[in-house]
Amino acid sequence: METIQIKDKIFRPYMSVEDINEILDSLSAQLNRDYADKDPLLIIVLNGAFIFAADLCKKLTIPCRLSLIKVSSYQGTESTNQISNLIGLKESLKNEHIIIVEDIIDTGNTMEYLLKTVSSHQPASMAICSLLFKPNSFSKDYKINYIGRSIPDDFVVGYGFDYDGYGRNLPCIYQLNA
Ligand code: IMP
Ligand code: MG
Q1: What's the whole-model pTM score?
Q2: What are residue 23's phi and psi, to 5 degrees?
Q3: Mind telling me the catalytic residues?
Q4: Of 75, 40, 73, which Cα lies nearest the Cα of 145?
Q5: Which ligand minimizes its atom distance to the CA of 49?
Q6: Cα angle 143-38-22, degrees, rounded to a multiple of 5
Q7: pLDDT tens-digit profile of 46-55?
Q8: Is residue 48 within 6 Å of ligand 1 at its C-beta?
């Protein structure tokens, strides 16, 4: 793996396909164990989580359903407090065991909004599964139940993560060369 350039920025290799696969194995094993008899509904947060969620759900051996939603709070490499509306939630969530699948939790604003929205639908339970977590940026008090890996604040691209729309298609994860 070599450094790559996207627009004006240089990114260095950070997590390989093998690293990601180990995380997927660990997360899927936990979910297969914890949700064995629960028939969960996975709420997948687009766009970022699309590759992670696709790979993760292929490793789930339990009965489960998927629903894709969209919400956005990010521009460039700076997190903003601006959160647009949630699109695509059509299923009834009442009495469902919900697992919200996210690519990354940074400030936690996006997830806070999602938790509020989902909980207003009276689910049986709610859990969060995020591929990455930036603990230094996080300032909320809710629990993140399943975390793939905690990382420093540096901006990442690849495997669903984008820089101004580019890089989502990369098979592994790169970190901004600060
Ligand atoms: P939060 O609301 O600050 O937690 O931001 C969450 C959203 O910001 C994520 O779902 C991502 O779409 C985006 N984001 C946060 N950090 C990064 C990053 O390092 N690379 C790409 N997108 C990021
Ligand atoms: Mg996201």
Answers
A1: 0.94
A2: -65, -45
A3: 106
A4: 40
A5: 2
A6: 60
A7: 999 999 999 9
A8: yes
